[in-house]
User: Which sequence fits this backbone?
DNA sequence: CGTCCACCGGAAAGACAGGCGG
DNA sequence: CCGCCTGTCTTTCCGGTGGACG
C-alpha cells in the first residue's frame, strides 16, 4: 500500500507537466499587462491625477459585473499613482478594502477599525464605542498633511448590510490637514438607486462603467495568460478561442474564463496528454456547469432542497406537475424523515424561488374549470439530477 | 353567463437565531 | 455577560382569479 502510493507520487513528479506556472490562471496572479481596458485606465488616471498637485480628486463610483477587471484596473492605477507621488515627494497613500471580507469590514465599527490598522493605528477588535473608533480614525488621518485615496471594493455589499450611513460619515468627514477621496467599486449597477441622495451626490461625482468582455477580448486576455501558464504548444488558438467564446456567451467574466482554462488544463494533465484538446475543454465546461448548479443547490435551505428533490422524483413519472402534486409528495417525504412540513403557502413561494434560481420552471397558469396552479417542470437535466439526489440523501441520511 | 376548481398572492403577525451595544 | 434588536423564515388569514364547463 505504502510503496504503491510512493510510486504514484514518484510518477507524478517525474511526469512532465503542461503547466509552467498554474498560478497565472488564478485570481491571485497580478497580470503584468491589462488588456482592453485602456479607456477605463485613462479615465481613472485623469480623475485621480489632481492628487499629484495635492488637490482632492473627485470621488468615483465604478460599476461592472464580476470579472470585468474593476479590481485589477483600480489596483494598477493606484499603484502607478503611488509611484508618481513618491518620486515627487507627495505624501499620498491608497488604502484598499474589500467590504465583503467577513469579520473585517462588514460593520461600521470593524470598517473603521480596519482602516485604522491600515494606517498603523491599532484599535481593539471590540469594546470601544463606535464613535470613539471614528474619532480615532479622523485623528490618524488628519495628523499631518497627506493625500488619502480609499478604495472600497464590493461597496454594494456594504450598502446592503449597513445602509448609506457609514458612507455618509466617511465622505463628509471634516479634515484640516489631510485630503481624502474615495473609489467605490460595485458589482451591482442598481446600487445608485439604493443610495441615500446625499451620499450619491458626493460618492459618484464621477462614474466609470466596466462592460463585460466580449469573446475577442477574452481571447486576448486568455492568450496572454496561457503563454505564461503553459508550456509551449500545450494549448492552441482554437482552444483559447473556444474557451473565450463560451465564457463570453455566459457572462463575459474573465475570472471564470481563466478558471475554465485552468480546469481544462488540469483534466488534460490528469490524462497525461501533452496538450489540451477540445474534449478536455468540453469536459471542463460540463464540470463548471454542474459545479455552479451544485453550488446553488448546496446553499438551499433543507426545505427548499426537499421541494426540489420532490420535483425531481415526480418528474420521472410525469413531465408537468402542479403545486398540489409537489406539495403532497413533499409532505410524505417530510413525514418519512420526521420533519414538520411547511405550509402550502410557503412551498408555493419556495417553488418561485427555485424558478428564479433557474433550477425549475414554475409558471402560473389557469386550467379553467380545473383550477389555477403553477405548472412545474425541471430546468436542468442529465447527470446533475442524480448528483442532486445523492446530495439530498446525504443531507437527510436516507 | 355564472359557477367553481385549485390554487394564487398580499398582509401581518409569530418564531427563531445571531449579533450589538452597554 | 445579558437583554434587546434586527433580519430571516414561516404561519395564519383570506380575498382574488382565469377560464373550461354546463
Ligand atoms: N483586462 C484584463 N487583462 C488581464 N486580466 C484581467 C483583465 N480583466 C480581468 N482580468 C483578470 O480577471 C480576474 C477578475 O478580475 P477582477 O478585476 O477581480 O474583476 P472584478 O473586480 O471586476 O470582479 C482577475 O484574476 C484578473 O487578473
Assistant:
Amino acid at each position: 500500500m505504502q510503496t504503491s502510493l510512493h510510486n504514484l507520487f514518484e510518477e507524478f513528479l517525474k511526469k512532465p507537466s503542461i503547466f509552467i506556472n498554474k498560478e497565472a490562471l488564478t485570481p491571485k496572479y497580478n497580470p503584468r499587462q491589462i488588456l482592453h481596458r485602456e479607456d477605463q485606465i485613462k479615465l481613472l488616471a485623469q480623475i485621480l491625477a489632481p492628487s499629484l498637485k495635492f488637490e482632492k480628486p473627485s470621488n468615483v463610483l465604478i460599476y461592472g459585473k464580476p470579472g470585468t477587471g474593476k479590481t485589477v484596473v483600480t489596483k494598477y492605477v493606484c499603484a502607478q499613482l503611488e509611484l508618481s507621488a513618491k518620486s515627487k515627494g507627495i505624501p499620498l497613500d491608497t488604502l484598499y478594502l474589500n467590504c465583503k471580507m467577513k469579520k473585517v469590514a462588514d460593520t461600521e465599527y470593524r470598517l473603521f477599525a480596519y482602516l485604522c490598522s491600515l494606517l498603523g493605528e491599532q484599535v481593539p477588535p471590540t469594546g470601544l464605542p463606535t464613535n470613539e473608533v471614528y474619532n480615532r480614525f479622523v485623528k490618524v488621518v488628519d495628523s499631518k498633511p497627506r493625500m488619502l485615496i480609499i478604495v472600497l471594493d464590493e461597496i454594494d455589499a456594504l450598502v446592503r448590510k449597513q445602509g448609506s450611513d457609514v458612507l455618509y460619515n466617511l465622505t463628509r468627514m471634516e479634515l484640516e490637514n489631510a485630503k481624502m477621496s474615495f473609489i467605490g467599486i460595485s458589482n451591482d449597477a442598481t446600487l445608485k438607486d439604493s443610495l441615500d441622495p446625499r451620499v450619491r451626490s458626493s460618492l459618484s461625482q464621477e462614474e466609470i462603467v466596466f462592460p463585460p468582455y466580449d469573446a475577442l477580448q477574452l481571447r486576448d486576455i486568455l492568450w496572454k495568460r496561457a503563454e505564461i501558464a503553459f508550456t509551449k504548444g500545450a494549448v492552441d488558438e482554437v482552444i483559447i478561442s473556444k474557451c473565450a467564446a463560451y465564457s463570453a456567451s455566459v457572462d463575459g467574466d474573465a475570472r471564470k474564463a481563466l478558471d475554465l482554462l485552468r480546469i481544462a488544463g488540469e483534466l488534460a494533465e490528469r490524462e497525461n496528454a501533452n496538450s489540451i484538446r477540445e474534449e478536455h475543454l468540453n469536459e471542463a465546461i460540463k464540470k463548471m456547469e454542474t459545479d455552479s448548479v451544485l453550488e446553488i443547490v448546496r446553499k438551499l435551505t433543507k426545505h427548499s432542497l426537499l421541494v426540489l428533490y420532490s420535483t425531481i422524483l415526480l418528474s420521472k413519472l410525469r413531465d408537468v406537475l402542479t403545486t398540489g402534486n409537489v406539495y403532497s409528495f413533499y409532505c410524505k417525504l417530510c413525514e418519512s424523515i420526521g420533519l414538520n412540513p411547511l405550509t402550502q403557502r410557503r412551498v408555493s413561494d419556495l417553488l418561485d424561488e427555485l424558478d428564479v434560481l433557474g433550477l425549475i420552471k414554475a409558471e402560473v397558469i389557469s386550467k379553467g374549470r380545473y383550477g389555477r396552479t403553477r405548472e412545474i417542470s425541471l430546468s436542468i437535466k442529465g447527470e446533475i439530477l442524480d448528483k442532486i439526489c445523492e446530495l439530498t440523501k446525504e443531507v437527510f441520511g436516507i
